[in-house]
## 1
Amino acid sequence: MTDLARTPLFDEHLALGGKMVPFAGFQMPVQYPAGALQEYKAVRDGRAGLFDISHMGQVRVSGPEALAFLQYVTTNDVARLVDGQVQYSALLNDHGTFIDDITTYKINDAEYYLCINAANRHKDVAHLKEQANSFDVHVIDESDDTTLLALQGAAAQQALQQIVDIDLEGLGYYRFGQMAVNGAAAIVSRTGYTGEDGFELYLPNAAAVDIWRKLLVLDAVPIGLAARDMLRTEMGYALYGHEISDSVTPVEARLMWITRLDKGAFIGRDVVAARKEQGPEKQLIALKLTGRGIPREHYPVTVDGKPSGEVTSGMHSPMAGGVALAYVRPEHAASGDLAVEIRGKAVPATRTSTPFVRSNVRK
Amino acid sequence: MTVPADLKYTKEHEWVRIDDDTATLGISDHAQEALGDIVFVELPEIGRQLASGEAFAVVESVKAVSDIYAPVAGEVIEVNEELEATPEKVNTDPYGSGWIAKVKTSGASVELLNDDEYTIFLQE
């Protein structure tokens, strides 16, 4: 793992007994000694889980044409954002398929901040810089200077409040503030990937270790990648490389709610509009096994005994049992007897909706 | 990490307890710890004839699916149905209530290690 990058918290993970695995070019903790299930429970059962997600990338977009640029390169309607608001969005290519899914933070009319996936960072930045040639904007990749922590769970606000200088109660869902965290200038948003109330903290690297340790002292529980994936899958949140990729458009991925065809021209728009008209090539659905087993990524999905598609993310949910997101043929999205093939056996399943378990985000 | 002296082990990290012609099978403490939280066990059918080294059960942790191989050949005569509701017993008591199946042996087996040999194997 010598050619893999380390986050500023690498030594902290080792000190806590984290089991490090390669992930998106980084060495990241997949779990700590308590194990993924206990970590998952800590977040769901009212504590505060602390996640190092510094592998993710951050890009600052500034300049007089920042809004026009982001309207053109992202799918969602950036004009709807007010200062201090966050928006889930996506970057598409000319074929209308996903380069990445992102969050857009509006600082002001001339300055925005994007959070992007680790595995797509270099591809995203190259794409954004190329597109920026046609606009009066600056695109700066700040990923290497930024430590990103997530603090998620019912106790997150109480813990974080101890080390910030503003009243977090006033910070709404998908809102952010620029504030001092333990004395360091940071961006803090009420966002996350778990379905619990919580925050994401964009910190200067030099401040990261102290803040990480302070939050642990404030009773936060360190959470690895395995529990993070359980928490996001239970919410039915898409993950790049699984539900979304450069082979599907927002029509297939059921992400038209972040794709505003009426906002004007943007990259991929015409292809997506045509696909919406013609209908998707395949359709993402949520399913729950009624038989025993765990649906896993790439397991075949059948409808009325015939091959229809495959699982993109699946898990054993402690609360909901065997649940999965899967692509099926569009004519199978709503009808027909559904099954997941597990080691050659067809295990029956029913269609359901997401989230698979109750979301506790603050709306 | 425990390696009881009264059991035999495989290099695939199964254990076997042989009483006359009955063999009780499970996975070792090392195996359960390496797998992490076990959330599903697929048990073999009673009456199934196993060749030694054949995959006969599946243990699934949060992130991984692992085949379990038969240390000995024979017929499955009993399975630990409690694992269907409480698979975590494989983690908490791998050599006791976390046993997986009992087999009426026909004598053939894969290479079996005693506790000392298995302990050395784990250290290599």
## 2
Amino acid sequence: MSGGLMLYNVLCLAVPFSVALLLAALGENFNQRAGVFNLGCDGIMCMGAFLGFMVPFTLKGGPWAAYGNLLGIGAALAVGAAMGVVFALVTVTFRASQGIAGIGLQMLGWGLAGTLFRHFVGGVTGVEGMAAIAIPGLSRIPFLGGVLFNHNALTYTALLLVPACWFLLYKTPWGLKVRAVGTHPRAADTMGIHVDRIRYQALMLGGAMAGLAGAYLSLCQAKMFSDDLVAGRGFIAVALVYFGRWSPLGILGGALLFSIAQSFQLSMQVWGIKFPYEFAVMLPYVLVIVVLAVARKARQLGPTDLGKPYNREMRF
Amino acid sequence: MNKNKVLYSGAIILAVTLTAALLVALVLFAIGASPLETYKTILTGPLSDLFGVTEVLVRSVPLLLVGLGIAISFRSGILNIGAEGQIQMGVIASTAMALAMPHAPKAILLPATLMAGALAGALWGGIAGWLKARLQVNEILSTVMLNYIAAQVYTFMLRGPMLDPTELETGSGTPQSMRLPESVFLDQLIPGTRIHAGLILALVAAVLVWMLLWKTTLGYRMRAAGAGAKAARYAGVPVERYLIVAMLLAGGFAGLAGAVEVTGVHHRAIEGISSGYGFAGIVVALFGALHPGGIVPSAVFFGVLLIGADMTQRSAAVPANMVLVLQGVIILSIVSAQSFLRNPYAQERFFRWLARFSAASTKAGKGAKS
């Protein structure tokens, strides 16, 4: 096998792998830019994955079957936004400690998805999922065509969301407000920005995107649901936000780095290079710790009030 | 603490419990189970006979140990979410220790086994502590990642180097280690049940943790580092060092819990041995107000919940994942309530409201009499 073909295979796998991480991390970026550290991302992804699977699964064979995937994605977005509101209620309105609250939301989402799945479905069942759409013309470009232009609709959406999120964050009034409430909420408050309201909105958007990331996992990647489908990707997404220095482009780079590492490891097994399966699985998690240690100097680039609840009545 | 404050805290705790119970009842309702019946099964089922009570205590031993460790870390300002992985590391190390010298006398082997478990857990937790102190790696993320890594190491060990040779011969392929020598088993407290001497160990540990945190300089400094890192550093406390110490201790308690599970209950390393104790331990610690005096009853309470949830799975067809939902809701409610507990204005408002309410009700009472 030539080196070029090997690279092609690795990259073709890497792009779909990166989508869930990318969507969740872009969403988490809005949360963190607004000053809220949402570790519940993983739990939201579980619920998104469950509903993304559940809706088309229930509609299968009915008159609405054709819209199953679309409705599933809609449900995942809605549940994500709803869980974002729950998290906002706890951390913004009640000003709870965000780290522990995030773990609580993660347990809630994970447990709820598992409970509902066991009750309504029970065993392992597949769904048809979303098919790949080759973009006419572009998909025939040698090398790049296969890597970039032969995927399902959600993959294209995720890639287009990178510039869209950048635009929203840096070129719109709302994006400026988000960055303001995460950097200096008191100053933002003085200028008449509703700090809590902006944080609610950012958490809803971030939650919806995490839900979408979950739906991608169940509808496009695995085409099924199980308890351990998400497998900590929500936490990896949070780490990617640090690694990407709170910029959509940096996050894209981080997501690609992770997925290339993952697809390289899978490809190595295909090529017959043997090492224990368990070590291959733990690789991305080790990578997260390394990435966090390396990216520590970037902290000053991030939102300065990250993780601090804002209390209007507090005096200094 | 004055009377008002106790009353206020009590009201908040009651409100938290009711909110959590109500939210979970909604979920139960959604999956078609009767909330009242399910709660009744969960809370009274496990306590209906002596065996049930001892089973609750068996579950509460690891919960108590893990919860104590987590309380130490939370009090020191470092959030240890990695107890699950630390337990598994403790299980591996203690099993390896017991299998390495099966003929040693009990007086040497048992302490050595427990120590090995605690040490392995401490090292695993210490990694996260060191990463936090030296490289400012967020401890929540690193401990969660270490959980996933430990889970893989654990399966690797059980399927590879530590696999029971007889499993290979019979070909059943259950991933589990060899049975430990009997000299390393913890004594049974009541014959015929599974309750073991680990209970006493855990209770002693609770007293020791209380003494450590509130009666020693080390504990005082750790709590100072947790209460206000900047102020503590200004007062000359090397905060980073105490972060590492706190994580070593937290991991050590989790590892000890793993060792106690092996030597007291399962007598070999099996798959799924920690069964969520690491996460439940967080809730136990928070529910016990991060104080050993609260964590002991809280561990027993969650022991009831875990056994009760198993029972509902059999009788009422409520999946056991429901426990995770319950834990998540409880965590969210507790951390939300803390903002009320800390807020003197909210307390004032509460008493004004209470005064108005009682005035209105006495007026109504007088009106009814006349």
## 3
Amino acid sequence: MSLKTSFSIKSVEFKNRVFVASGTFGYGDEVGDAVDVNSLGAIVTKSLSLKPRAGNPPRRITETPSGMLNSIGLANIGVEKFIQEKLPYLRTLKTSVIANIAASSVDEYCRVLQLLDAEDGIAGYEINVSCPNVKEGGLSFGTDTKKVREITEKLRALTERPLLIKLTPNVTHISEFARVAEEAGADAISAINTLVGMAVDLRTRKPKLSTVTGGLSGPAIKPVALAKVYEIVQAVSIPVIGIGGIASADDALEFLIVGAVAVQIGTMNFVDPSAAITIAKGIEDYANRQGYNDVGDLIGTLDANIEFSPLHSWLH
Amino acid sequence: MRFVQESAQIVLREEIASGIYILRLESPSIAHRSQPGQFLNIRTMDSYGPLLRRPFSISNVERNEIEILFKVIGKGTQILSRKSVGDEIDVIGPLGGSFNLSLRFNHAILVAGGLGVAPFPFLTQSLLSQGKQVTSFMGARSADQIVTRKLRNVQLATDDGSRGFHGNVIDLLREVLKDTPLPEARIFGCGPTAMMKALSDLADSISIPCQISLEGDMACGIGICQGCPVERRGGEKKYSLVCTEGPAFESREIVLR
């Protein structure tokens, strides 16, 4: 019997459980023939804003131990140009496209989503309320439960398509934000966005990034991301998509086992543009070896003794 | 953009100056697509330290082989310098655009600061095949850092005066051009930012079109991470990406800081 790899969120079926994360795969057309993009579970686009954004001044990137800091500042071509120039290509793909939306006001989120909702070829939306590298919007939204509720409610009213809220780990209890998003009508939670981090150049004593702090990503953050996903899974009943430092099938499997329904590959796409495809194959191999008929049967199979877990003492 | 990702075997490793190495890689699919000015993005380790690929100018191409030229400055270059002939490395390339050779010029002036010389052997090969005259200016800290392999008509400058002109390579270029103005010339430059800035100013002042090849801190090399912006001079667009819109830019179109 062949292994089932597909799954659904709302009425949208994804061919497998490995997506490429926003900002780490462009608009899907940059990799050319070097990657079989049709084998991806979904492409989550670079964050789209109402108007084009030039992004932050250099330096925007610096490497750190097993990771990197970025401060791109949501550089993107804007939603209108995306619809005109990128969507026609994306529509030809045999993989789902999730449009990621970033904005500096509630109204801007709504207007971007409405423009996209009038177009075919978009499976759903992921709402970025968690960018650490912009002055307006970004973390000021993602660290305020009232704002997360307001944004989610307003967007929910505007679309039937799956609505994913992407959360920041830069809060005390991420599960509170997940609960709020669930109550406000979100269909799924994406977690986590980057952790605020910093690096200093010893020669010049200047911060390595132009914006002083940036977002930490890569294998360094995987254990943090896994704990956050575990926390969210305990708190909500909507699906959770795990993101953060996933570099191998083993990493991805950990997220599925703690309860994520799918994963997104981010920073590793920069290192190996085919990473997500390699990881999807690795998950299938593991599921086959373990005798499963459906990759989904792995989800939430964590065998944990929660008696000693400090998380559970305040979560319930 | 047409690039490939492949495992390339090292066929030559040579320390050609103090701490400066050449690696020659067998990679027919990349070699056949490469143009002068393009670069490779190389994964130095399978593990996560260092995590990101390292970009290197394509220094020379002969038949199925491509060469990179680098100095050991950090962990990535140190790891590469310790590779052996026969080892395979994961390479993505060719990336970025080529030097623009379509402008009308007869005489190419190549100006290199330190390891900025890396793309010039390949460029020289291409210029000579088009029948251009080539004069090269190479600046280095000291005599043991000079690399002139496969360059033509080289004039040298060293910061410490241990060989050639005592001073920086831009001052040398200025002196030479003062005595022998070159009609129908075009400058190609590559080196540290301060040197490129001085070169751009000089090119402006003597009205010779100048193209400079930049380095940027980049994660992907293929236009996805948006990590390597360079500021544009005027115009509607604020930044260009070094990886996909460069690495070579007309000096008058960008701002160096």
